[in-house]
């Protein structure tokens, strides 16, 4: 007699693999954005917002916070752990809040906020898909 420990179907395995793949792709993007913010803080390039000492106070707070949070979210998503998604949502909320609430101070470039929103919606769809399929199968029976 065999005891089946994991009752996984190919669909569930595919959903899990796609979720991990998405998390890892987003983790690489978050690492890249984290490096971008560290380059800004260290002052590799000359410019008004490209060195910490020449930034306004609002940019100093946001840039230093995101420089720390982006790599943490990237590590959490690479592993794929639930706290990584939580930190990622926090980072996305900070980015979107800066651009949408204070466009005079942070500009109106919505590309990074749109990336976060699109990837979060895709991850939510991947997480919700098995639940929807299970409910549909229950209704058919």
Automatic annotation (TrEMBL):
Pfam family, one: DUF6163
Top-rank taxon, per record: Bacteria
Transmembrane annotation, as ranges: 21-39, 59-78, 85-106, 112-133
Signal peptide: none
InterPro entries listed in its UniProt record: DUF6163
Swiss-Prot/TrEMBL keywords: Membrane, Transmembrane, Transmembrane helix
Name this protein carries in UniProt: DUF6163 family protein
Organism: Aureimonas populi
């Amino acid at each position: 007699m065999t005891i089946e420990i994991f009752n996984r179907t190919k669909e569930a395995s595919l959903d899990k693999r796609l979720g991990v793949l998405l998390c890892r792709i987003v983790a690489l993007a978050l690492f890249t954005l984290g490096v971008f913010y560290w380059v800004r803080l260290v002052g590799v390039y000359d410019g008004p917002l490209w060195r910490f000492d020449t930034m306004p106070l609002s940019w100093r707070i946001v840039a230093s916070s995101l420089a720390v949070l982006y790599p943490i979210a990237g590590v959490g998503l690479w592993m794929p752990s639930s706290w990584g998604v939580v930190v990622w949502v926090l980072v996305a909320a900070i980015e979107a809040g800066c651009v949408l609430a204070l466009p005079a101070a942070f500009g109106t470039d919505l590309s990074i906020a749109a990336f976060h929103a699109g990837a979060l919606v895709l991850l939510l769809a991947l997480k919700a898909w098995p639940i929807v399929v299970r409910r549909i199968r229950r209704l058919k029976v």
